[in-house]
Design a protein that fits this description.
Blueprint: E1 2-6, H1 12-18, E2 27-31, E3 52-58, H2 65-70, E4 76-84, H3 97-106, E5 109-114, H4 133-151, E6 158-162, H5 171-191, E7 194-200, H6 204-211, E8 223-227, E9 249-262, E10 265-276, E11 281-282, E12 287-288
Parallel strand pairs: 3-4, 4-5, 5-6, 6-7, 7-8, 8-9
Antiparallel strand pairs: 1-2, 1-9, 3-10, 9-10, 11-12
């Protein structure tokens, strides 16, 4: 297989919609030694990504069924799918319940991504209103949960909020993001889904969530999905305390925007390393037990509540 990569930037969905032209990007081509594809449990129907350690990729639009079959020869075992959000960019002609079922039958895991309102201090046009941040977070979670259920994604799947880079030093902005994120997480729990957060290590988004990790009243994301395009397949980073999002509640986007070809099919992707385990998590409304598993174009209900 071959890969062609560009220098790090934003997650694909945001790059396609929010930073329409990136000037001065470096283009490099590297050869990668082919490796055997990962073991997959055919017929998987559990939560996504569930318990999974290995490589995943995300791409702006869900690939065709034939492409997904060809990519069974790749080292990737999980796929990021953009299920919704006001800032989602690419059309999702392939992303249907039938497509999801077919990929699950092949053993693919998913990490669902939702590209909602962005930080009020960001340059994006669709942003959080600080006066309504919590309400907007709940509305986004309601929409994300509906879309996940409609696609057939099992309860306890983790839906990742794609919060793109925003600058530090604006307390009101940080507060609005945290209120949105906390409400997003709490509402997803009410719907029976787990919550994730995507952020860049260079963004105030990571620092803000680290600072609020144990803050009273803040409902933190269940999973941290962070970007650091250093090419290292790990879930550790100096900016993430070793006591946060553990055990096995992290994934890393270690390489951005590049092309790879597997099984004769070329796709533009970002590469990720996942080390996640479905946790036994007591929320206010339920105990969730362990179980099986978006400028370049513009960017299930709680498992029965128990006490």
């Amino acid at each position: 297989m071959t890969t062609t990569s560009t220098w790090p930037g934003l997650r694909r969905a945001a790059r396609r919609l929010l930073t329409a032209a990136v000037v001065g990007m470096l283009l490099a081509t590297t050869a990668v030694t082919a490796v055997a594809g990962p073991a997959r449990a055919a017929g998987y129907t559990g939560p996504h990504p569930g318990t999974f350690t290995g490589l995943g990729f995300d791409t702006c639009a869900a690939p065709s069924d034939d492409a997904m079959t060809a990519w069974l020869k790749s080292p990737y075992g999980a796929l990021g799918i953009y299920i919704g959000g006001v800032n989602r960019g690419c059309k999702q002609a392939n992303l249907t319940p039938g497509w999801v079922a077919k990929q699950q039958a092949k053993g693919w895991r998913f990490f669902p991504l939702y590209v909602g309102l962005q930080a009020p201090c960001s340059s994006y046009s669709r942003r959080i209103d600080p006066a309504q941040a919590a309400a907007q977070g709940r509305t986004a979670a309601d929409d994300a949960a509906t879309k996940a259920r409609d696609l057939g994604l099992a309860a306890l799947s983790t839906i990742i909020l794609d919060m793109e880079r925003y600058p530090a030093g604006n307390a009101a902005c940080s507060t609005a993001v945290l209120e949105f994120s906390s409400a997003w997480t709490a509402r997803l729990h009410e719907h029976g889904y787990l919550s994730g957060l995507y952020t860049d290590v260079a963004s105030a988004g990571l620092a803000d969530h680290v600072a609020a990790y144990s803050r009273a009243g803040h409902v933190r994301p269940d999973l941290l999905d962070f970007a650091n395009w250093d090419g290292v397949r790990t879930t550790t980073d100096p900016k993430v305390p070793s006591t946060h999002w553990v055990p096995k509640r992290r994934m890393k986007q270690y390489q951005g925007d590049h092309h790879e070809t597997w099984g004769g099919v070329r796709i533009n992707i970002d590469s990720n390393y996942l080390d996640v385990q479905l946790p036994a998590t007591r929320h206010r409304s339920a105990t969730v037990p362990p179980g099986r598993p978006w400028a370049r174009a513009l960017w299930a209900r709680v498992a029965q509540a128990v006490r």
